[in-house]
């Protein structure tokens, strides 16, 4: 899984922020393995550097193999809190989205067809079928 970090000019994009984002996103999405090919993380300061509550905004977009991308966002007072909140939301969304794909349908079948049952016939029945 590739993780891309984008920030606006009001967010300090340094190595510690990159490491934090990589760590949080990787840990939150590790169980989805190859189903998630890329996560884009966008961080911005809604108040352009002025102090304020809930002004750090994080958007995460996960690219899924063979499916449409999914997007979540989270606002918080601090950048790291916004990243953590968005990662938790993304994890729940992927649990829901990908979990539904693996869950049995109403008829009790999964999304993949079952192998045909092997029917044993006696030699006399086999001769009658020919």
From TrEMBL:
**What SUPFAM superfamilies would the database entry show?**
Ribosome binding protein Y (YfiA homologue)
* Stretches the record annotates as Disordered: 99-130
Going by the entry's taxonomy, the superkingdom of the source organism is recorded as: Bacteria
Q: Pfam family of this protein, just one?
A: Ribosomal_S30AE
UniProt-recorded name of the protein: Ribosomal subunit interface protein
Organism, scientific name: Lysobacter concretionis Ko07 = DSM 16239
């Amino acid at each position: 899984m590739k993780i891309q970090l984008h920030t606006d000019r009001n967010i300090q994009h340094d190595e510690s922020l990159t490491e934090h984002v990589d760590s949080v996103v990787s840990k939150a999405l590790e169980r989805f393995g190859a189903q998630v090919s890329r996560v884009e993380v966008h961080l911005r300061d809604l108040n352009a550097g002025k102090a304020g509550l809930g002004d750090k905004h994080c958007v995460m977009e996960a690219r899924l193999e063979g499916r449409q991308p999914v997007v979540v966002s989270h606002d918080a007072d601090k950048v790291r809190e916004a990243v953590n909140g968005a990662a938790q939301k993304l994890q729940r969304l992927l649990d829901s989205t990908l979990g539904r794909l693996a869950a049995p349908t109403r008829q009790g079948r999964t999304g993949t067809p079952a192998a045909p049952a092997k029917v044993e016939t006696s030699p006399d029945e086999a001769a009658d079928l020919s």
